[in-house]
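The data layer described in this paper is built around a simple, fixed record for each protein. Such a record has a labelled line for the sequence and another for the backbone structure tokens. For reference, a complete record is included directly beneath this paragraph.
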Amino acid sequence: MKNLAKILLVVAMGLLVLSTAPSYGAEDENIWTEDGVGTKSQDGPRGGEMMRERIEKRLDELAKTDPQRAEELKKMLQDDPQAFRQEMQKMRGDGPMQEERMGERFGNRRLQMQGHEGKDGMGPKMAPREDLKERHKEFIEWLGKNYPDEAAKLEALKGNQQAYMRTTMLMAKKYGRVMRASEDDPELAAVLKSEIELKDKRNEIIRKIRSTTDEAQIAELTEELTGVVSEQYDLIVKQKELAYKNLEKQLSELQGRVKESKGQVEKLNDPDVKSKNVKSRVEELINKSERINWN
């Protein structure tokens, strides 16, 4: 039970950071860019660079203990990025440093947003275990209501702790944005759900194409794939439209704050207002100094 509690804690830490990822797709010249090795992440232009830095750091660490394996992975990264990503996902579920690595990866960003500070206020510290467990519980409950088949698969893995943790993290990555959007933006949530369904359908068609040599079947599947990709394109554009509307709303709010701030500055620059405030402050300081401290 203690080991399971640790697993749930690490999973919950992952859910925290996944829940803070921006809901809208990142702006990118390549409209088809998806999260993965060597691409821009949804955290902005620095996302892809940071991902590469983490990969290089992890490979350097591996080279100290298993240089041959590190070289194999470097070659795999160049030749087959998708296979490399899958291999790295497997590695994240193994080894005694798993909890530490996951804690470092998933603990920081959300906690900074929550205002948790570490020693000397220099950085984030870990949130209470109850907060992390609650986040995990919320995700599992949401998954059961919206994707009961997936929740059942997850429940069946509880006897295998590593598999449970790894699968939970993958599901959180897949459905986390939908969960968050369903709370704040139902229209976006609907788009994201459709996007997941189309991506699954697309992957299935691709598997069928790669597993057959029948030219007629390949042509039929290719036509079907073209239709799915066309629908994906429409959903990507829809997300960007929603992002545009969201930015317009933020800009309008910011313009209102700028106007209010400008009015305050103009008022404070008035000589009469300055004289009144200075006089009031001087009186306050004098009265404060004349008070007797009885402590």
